[in-house]
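Limitations

Structures in this collection are predictions, not experimental determinations, and the ligand pose is part of the prediction. Treat each record accordingly. The example that follows, with nicotinamide-adenine-dinucleotide as the small molecule, is included so readers can see exactly what is and is not provided: the inputs are given verbatim, and the output is the predicted complex.
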Amino acid sequence: MKKTRVVVIGVGMVGSTTAYTLLLRERADELVLIDVDHNKAVGDALDMNHGMPFIGHTEVWAGTYEDCKGADIIIITAGSAQKPGETRTDLLKRNVSIYESIISEVLKYNDDGILLLATNPVDIMSYFSLKKSGWPINRVIGSGTLLDSARFRYLISEELTLDPRSVHAHIIGEHGDSELPVWSLANVAGAKVELDEATKDKVFVETRDAAYSIIEAKGATYYAIALALDRIVTAILRDEAAVLNVSTLLQDYYGISDVYLGVPCVVDRQGVRQVMDIELTEGEQQLLHKSANKLKDLIRSIES
Ligand SMILES: NC(=O)c1ccc[n+]([C@@H]2O[C@H](COP(=O)([O-])OP(=O)(O)OC[C@H]3O[C@@H](n4cnc5c(N)ncnc54)[C@H](O)[C@@H]3O)[C@@H](O)[C@H]2O)c1
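Predicted complex:
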């Protein structure tokens, strides 16, 4: 049987934690770590291999782009931080050009894998990855609002003193400031989540601003995103058809097209098999349009 191979490109905080999570959960037969700082990847591979006597058997190594050959999933978490005096748009342009060079390397060795993207702003990075790769939409996936939805479900579960896995609730739109909570569909065993407006506002603001709080406290977020990426990888490799709020190119979704946004999608071995039709209220639709317009403006600013 063909070995399953997952490549992680950019083994900083998010990439290395993701690789470690995949390793602990034995998700793939082979894990390849690639970074522009090759020594970092070598160190991570050594460190993980030394843990092998305590877990099962996964082959982990610091690789090159040639190792993308035959990879089932290529996760990209490579990114660059803002330089002093640099505007957000300039940073964005720089990250897009980093992605363009990474993707052209990947394309030399792989034409049938799945690109799973996490670098921020993830919806924009996913959009440009689709354009650069020329791959079908289903095989270019952004981590979207899966992490945000997990934060949302956790915070609701704290209010209700319930297991977060029993809370079904979605954050959709941009993975960022313009995301929106779909309160109209939030439920526990089909029963509507009943919270007062002040609590709802508090829960959503804490969800939306979670990354700021964590970054202020410890410089970066990586544990929960690693679990979210692991969840997507598992849905793909096990052909689960799981419904996950990943980022995909919308095509006439509530009239929105040609932009990547986080929405509930069916994820299986093909990647994003289908976008779920969910019933949004008028207010939620307006917020989704606002989020889409913000991202479209950003795309235009990079293209100009
Ligand atoms: N999607 C989400 O929900 C989510 C959550 C958390 C973080 N993130 C994003 O993930 C990204 C990574 O965050 P981090 O904390 O790991 O940053 P980091 O600085 O720790 O890691 C980035 C890594 O990318 C590598 N890199 C840079 N250019 C490269 C290139 N051309 N080729 C290969 N590797 C390259 C760097 O050497 C570094 O190891 C950021 O954009 C961050 O905002 C996304």
